[in-house]
Specification:
Keywords (chains A, B): Hydrolase, Protease, Serine protease
CATH superfamily of chain A: Class I glutamine amidotransferase (GATase) domain
Oligomer: homodimer
Order of helices and strands of chain A: EHEHEHEHHEHEHEEEEE
Family (chains A, B): Belongs to the peptidase S51 family.
Radius of gyration of chain A: 17 Å
Protein name (chains A, B): (Alpha)-aspartyl dipeptidase
Distance between the termini of chain A: 18 Å
Helix content of chain A: 25-40%
Largest interface: A-B, 44 and 43 residues
Shape of chain A: globular
GO molecular function (chains A, B): serine-type peptidase activity
Number of helices of chain A: 7
CATH class of chain A: Alpha Beta
Strand content of chain A: 15-25%
Chain lengths: 235, 235
């Protein structure tokens, strides 16, 4: 049993926080009112309280209540007893580091495998992959491992962005970076453009949203897939 | 004694490899013909041989010979006996990981502190800082530590790029990422734009090239410095 939304971003340009996902989230959270929010990724370094307020305001628009994991005495128990989980974006290293430090990786995995709805955006999506070695984030802290939840059998690259051939900046393109990843690692990587998400439903993993995604497999030319493509054989 | 060039990039748009640095490098390498090249950062995952050929071709234009560190039986001895060192760009994690695996951090530090000319570009510059926690690269491998050579008392952000307010992509700007760094770390960070370099000469650290650089200090508003600014008090 798995019930996961792995979203490239929380927000697409010109819309409110999570707004593009509201229709999907109404179905996803269905009759669940209370959502456990994990604010550890701290975008812009904001506090857990401030971040939880943002999530609370966002999900109140579809009538859901949110409680921050940081407000529980025992975060492990809170995860085990959660009816639904939302892990927001920010810095993936900061998020994973905190999960390791608080010893929450196993309980989070088990809770997801029980079928508890898990929504991840950006950093919260990155950690669904086998490792966070395809994050775009700056390594501002050093977690004890880059291995992640592995609830899908590949890596995620959120905020995927195409090569801009007009750029005069010499930094590497996203595609170059992911190709370099495959000199040292063999698992597939999904480049999820902003506005796309993966919906994991038991054995099915489908691309959702209006855009294509880009798939990078070891020793293969990268290729595009269309929305609604089934990805359950990708590993 | 220190004699270091810390360059944002090897190549600026529309010019040949290292070309914008040729005048500076003629003085820098002065009467030294043989340069030890460290190819470990492997841009695009290319081999050490291929990368060394690129450096050889580049530096041949100012009459210098290059030998790749990977061709020496004992890399530690090669570093200790080098007359000059050049560490090229690529992936900073890959570079640092290899230096740790081969146990070369101490000898590299000592050689630089003896005054042996060290040129770094991009990843090769990043490792001159206190840590590589302000790299832009993807963490495709996991070094045993992110602590770097620390031959300057701050961190480097090479390929620094300004906020583009026309972008509709929601990934974090470079400035946002460095501000997040300062929620967890206190050392200053120099955002070095492509075309800029730092010249370290004994106690002096000067910004070179035609551009400004952006300085990020803990708990301070970021600010611009002009070329030729002396940075030896920044720490």
């Amino acid at each position: 049993m798995k019930n996961i939304i792995i979203a490239s971003t929380s927000t697409i340009h010109g819309t409110a926080y999570l707004e593009y996902l509201f229709d999907e989230l109404k179905l996803f959270y269905n009759d669940i009112d209370d959502i456990l929010f994990i604010p550890y990724a701290r975008p812009n370094g904001i506090s857990h309280d401030t971040y939880t307020e943002i999530a609370t305001k966002g999900l109140s628009k579809i009538g859901r209540k949110v409680k921050g994991l940081h407000t529980f005495q025992n975060p492990e128990t809170a995860i085990k007893e959660a009816k639904a989980i939302f892990v927001g974006g920010g810095n993936t290293f900061v998020l994973l580091n905190e999960l390791y430090k608080k010893n929450l990786i196993t309980s989070l995995k088990q809770t997801i495998k029980k079928g508890i709805p898990y929504l991840g955006t950006s950093a919260g999506s990155n950690i669904c992959g086998l490792s966070i070695k395809t994050t775009n984030d700056m390594p501002i802290v050093f977690p004890k491992s880059l291995n992640a939840l592995g609830v899908v059998p590949f890596n995620i690259n959120p905020h995927y962005i195409d090569v801009d051939t007009t750029l005069k900046h010499m930094g590497e393109s996203r595609e170059t970076r992911i190709n370099e990843f495959h000199k040292f690692n063999t698992q597939p990587v999904i480049g999820l453009r902003e506005g796309s998400w993966l919906k994991v439903d038991d054995g099915s993993i489908k691309l959702k949203g209006t855009l294509n995604a880009r798939i990078f497999e070891y020793n293969k030319e990268p290729y595009e897939i269309e929305t609604e493509t089934e990805l359950n054989t990708l590993k």
